[in-house]
Amino acid sequence: MGNYEGIRLIFQGRLFWLIILLFFASVGFAYLSYRITNPPVSQKKKRLLVLLRSLAFFFLFLSISEPVLFGMKQWRKKPKLIILADNSKSLGITDRICDRAETVRALLESKPIEELKSRYPTETLLFSDRIDTTKLSPDFTGDVTAIGNVILSLSQREDIGGVILITDGETNSGDDPVFTASYFPKKIYTIGVGDPEPTRDAFIKDVQTDRTAYRNTPFTVRVILQASGFEKRRAKVQILCGKRVLGGKELDISKGTRIYSEDFSISLDTVGTVDLTARIPTLPGEFTGKNNRKLFSVNILKSKRKLMLLVGKLDYEYRFFKEALEKNKNIEVEEDIVKKGYRLSSFPRTVDKMKEYEAIFLFNAFETLSKNNLLKKLSDYIKSGGSVFMLIQDAPKLSETDRSILAEILPFEYPANTEMVDESFSPLPTIEGKKHPLMQFEEPADRLFGGLPPLEEFLMAGETKSYATPLLVHSELKDIPIYSIGTVGRGKVAAFSAYPLWKWSFLAKGFHKFEDCYDQLVQNLLVWLLVKEKVSPLVVETDKRIYHSGEPILFSAMVSDESGKPVEAASVGVKLFGKDSIEITLDEIGKGRYEKVIPSLPPGEYRFNATAKLDFDTIGKASGKVIVEEYSLEFEDTRMNRPALISVAEKTGGRFFTPDEIDSLPECVKFEDITGTDYLEKPLWDYPVFLLLFILALSLEWFIRKRSDLL
Length: 711
What we know:
Layout: E1 5-11, H1 16-33, H2 43-64, E2 67-77, E3 80-86, H3 100-108, H4 111-119, E4 122-127, E5 131-132, H5 147-154, E6 160-167, H6 177-181, E7 187-192, E8 201-209, E9 212-214, E10 219-228, E11 233-241, E12 244-253, E13 258-266, E14 272-279, E15 293-301, E16 305-311, H7 316-325, E17 331-337, H8 351-354, E18 359-363, H9 366-371, H10 375-383, E19 387-391, H11 400-409, E20 420-425, E21 428-429, H12 431-435, H13 445-451, E22 455-459, E23 469-473, E24 481-488, E25 491-496, E26 498-499, H14 503-510, H15 517-530, E27 538-542, E28 546-549, E29 553-559, E30 571-577, E31 582-585, E32 587-590, E33 593-598, E34 604-614, E35 617-632, H16 642-652, E36 656-657, H17 665-668, E37 674-683, H18 688-707
Parallel strand pairs: 3-4, 3-6, 6-7, 7-36, 9-15, 16-17, 16-18, 18-19, 19-25, 28-35
Antiparallel strand pairs: 1-2, 2-37, 4-5, 8-10, 10-13, 11-12, 11-14, 14-15, 20-22, 21-23, 22-26, 23-24, 24-25, 27-29, 29-33, 30-31, 30-34, 32-33, 34-35
Helix pairs in contact: 1-2, 2-18, 10-11
């Protein structure tokens, strides 16, 4: 039984003793049945017939009593040593100290490593953004490094004694490796490869500019550079559109590691999305020129965009909101402050006049619109492609007709007798809200909204409509939307149904905490309202237009029918054409939304065609473009991150080594054997052999009775 000890038979039947009594009763019955036979037979044959019937009952009752064969054995084995070797691009360079690629290869074949391999069963695994089991030797082609994710992926393995991590310690994706290591159950021994001092390099760290500008109107582009390892030197920074130079400045590079910035005033005589390039030349002695250029895009518009503000009453909500709006220099704001008797002055009275405005913002204005018979016209404006934001501070008193019109355009259900509720609370971001462009801030959404001044009143409305998206909800009543968006016909609607919102600006700035969150909230809303998408049953977007080499690319799609309602259970396929041709199918995430992440693409320009099908019928098509620039995150900081590697080792009880110190590695790496117990628990009651023996015993008994002419 495979060295199992203490093997015994256990019966699991609940009525085991009753089954035993029935068995002995059955044996007694068999004996009595053959005590007197007709015709008489020999005693020997009687005993055989009694035995066969008793055996038949034995196998029957054995199955009923659910016997299980039980045993156990203890074992001991040596744990595995995992050697993790960084296979990313930053390990393929040559710095001031060493050729990193050769150093990694030499470490993997070194005597200390070979000695450890002779002691413990070993797995050598290559990684960049994840462990790659398809490669046997390093080629240093990984576009990103995610040390924390790799450590996390090994944390559940029970056969590991410890880990040797060979890397430069720089991570540019995924979880923080020091944080992850603090929860790793085994020791990690880190070997740092490369120069801890900055490599001689100059690269464009960031390009900052407005996402939108206007034709033949100057806009500012700020180019931020980092340079290290150079003596005094001059370099020319340029902005290009294709091959045409739009601007250039000489930059004086000083000794040491420093960050520089240059501002350019650019204007373009075109309309649409324009791809631009910021670049500096490759300098003498620079280890790579691949990070000396950075692509960015600007949406060039014909003219500034007009907004209309309808203000029911002058208060802080209106004042702070308008101040935040006007920080965007690409808009013109007109306002109409309601006068006594609900009188209007400049607010448009027809749908055509409303269409002259890119978006309309309403502040406590529903009753004014109702008194002026404009709610229906506002509804028609939205359905024809207009955008409206509603800041709701009270439950308006409307006629049933106007209440129905308002209920139709709101992104949430609006039953009769809806009232405001006086209650202090902090709103809670939804799962959809955390990922939505409207909710992108410098701070994570959970931390941000938990740290802002609480709201004090909210509209006790109904649930968010199926085709709308809740971004913020009540912290306790999670079906009550506080900030929600949706589409009505061809237009967009956003509603914030709680207040005071203005305190998020006033108090945050007063306490110097989350100072820019209010302005960012307003600007995010403005961008969303002003983006006018074509009416299409399929809209496919990427989360960015331009990506770094190695950066994951998110494709998202929205599928809707002719009335704008979401279409579920569709099949959305995307084909990319460029250096590589790729076909992907997006995953359904609900409410007509579909998503898929591509880990990375080689540098180049890619066009994509997307098709949505429902029951094999094509219901929509879309196309677009994605650019992957050569700029790699792997070359942004190529120093060996000694402090991080020391922290990872110390958090787990391991030790940090340089390649020159690994002779002492075998003395430090010592693992206890892994012990455990294997249990044998083999049910026997359902074995077919018991049924066969039962049938065989009864068949033999029947055969003998037949041959003996027994009645």
